Automatic annotation (TrEMBL):
Alphabetized GO MF terms: nucleic acid binding
Protein name in UniProt: DUF91 domain-containing protein
Length: 343
């Protein structure tokens, strides 16, 4: 980087320095710069959270939304990325992938409150910023890693992850200081390499075409089992070792509590009242996991027993209006009793 004097028509080369030499810290310096000026990262982002505490005790540096409604996890380091920064960011993305739109709004509202900004309707601000259909919010997560230098292991891992369609970017922030102690910051995207995005997109498109030849785990096909086989399969499902099993049992108990259709919101509230989830947002994510399980190719017996609505009938669509098929209500109750569950 050069500092040019227009009067003398001379250029003086500035030497890069280390953030450490300036006694800067991620949270109180670099993080604040990015929070106040997210365009440093090379795109238009709406910062919605800072240092959000996860159940694990970890705190991602910044969370943002891009114009497409994708959740962007920003992880900042000072002079060296270390070897584990990409894994840390992936862990955060996995945690936040289950957040609903209401969770995003709550997070943004708390963020504004912490900054002392009174906004009566943060939802409007998000919907004004995002250019895509609001239902697409957080359907995809992106990762941005920011550091002065990146460990070679991190760069290799990031390139490999991008091959598998993980949207992850590395930005180098290089600080310079002039003779007047003025600080300059140069952001540089090093992955993906500028100018080759089109090639990468073509490569990903080709990989998608190849992967489409592999069967999807999604199915709406219902089973046609005898009562005996149905009981056997249901019993196996409700006794398998999985965190999902007790939640699925609670879900079925709700459907058996009355011979009618239950909408998603009522089921979510009742699951929460049964102790499924620490808050309604988490309960909603658990319900989504149950719904996804209902449409796996391996669970046609559940679709034979439980009806639900999916207007378009496509993978990823939100399900609603669940009901146990009348002729199987007693069969399901018998299975629950056999595995020691009270109805």
């Amino acid at each position: 980087m050069y500092k040019v004097d227009l009067k003398s028509k001379s250029a003086k080369k500035l030497k890069p320095i280390r953030f450490k030499d300036l006694e800067l810290k991620e949270k109180f310096d670099i993080e604040v710069w990015v929070r106040k000026n997210p365009e440093i990262l090379g795109e238009n982002l709406l910062i919605i959270s800072e240092q959000t505490l996860l159940p694990s005790g970890r705190q991602p540096d910044l969370l943002a939304l891009d114009k497409s409604g994708n959740l962007v996890i920003v992880e900042l380091k000072k002079d060296d990325s270390g070897k584990e920064v990409y894994w840390q960011a992936i862990t955060y993305a996995a945690n936040f992938s289950e957040f609903s739109y209401s969770d995003i709004i709550d997070m943004y509202e708390k963020y504004l409150e912490n900054l002392g900004i009174a906004d009566p309707n943060p939802k409007d601000k998000i919907e004004e910023f995002v250019e895509e259909d609001i239902e697409k919010i957080n359907q995809k997560q992106r990762l941005i890693l920011v550091s002065k230098e990146f460990h070679p292991d991190v760069l290799r891992a990031v390139l490999w992850l991008r091959d598998f369609e993980i949207d992850i970017k590395c930005i180098r922030l290089t600080p310079y200081m002039d003779e007047n102690n003025q600080l300059f910051i140069i952001p540089e995207v090093i992955i993906p390499t500028p100018g080759v995005e089109e090639y990468i997109e073509r490569k990903i498109s080709k990989q998608k075409t190849i992967r489409k030849s592999y069967p999807s785990p999604f199915s709406l096909e219902k089973g046609d089992f005898t009562d005996e086989e149905l009981k056997k399969r249901l019993k196996e499902t409700l006794t398998r070792e999985s965190d999902l099993t007790p939640r699925l049992i609670a879900f079925i108990k709700i459907l058996l509590s009355d011979n009618r259709i239950f909408d998603r919101e009522e089921i979510k509230r009742r699951l929460y009242n049964m102790g499924i989830g620490k808050n309604l947002g988490q309960t909603g994510r658990y319900l989504s996991n149950i719904s996804q399980f209902l449409t796996k190719k391996s669970t046609p017996h559940l679709r034979q027993i439980i009806e639900f609505q999916m207007p378009r009938g496509v993978e990823g669509e939100v399900k609603d209006n669940y009901k146990v098929v009348d002729k199987y209500r007693e069969l399901v109750k018998e299975v629950l009793k056999e595995i020691g569950e009270e109805i």
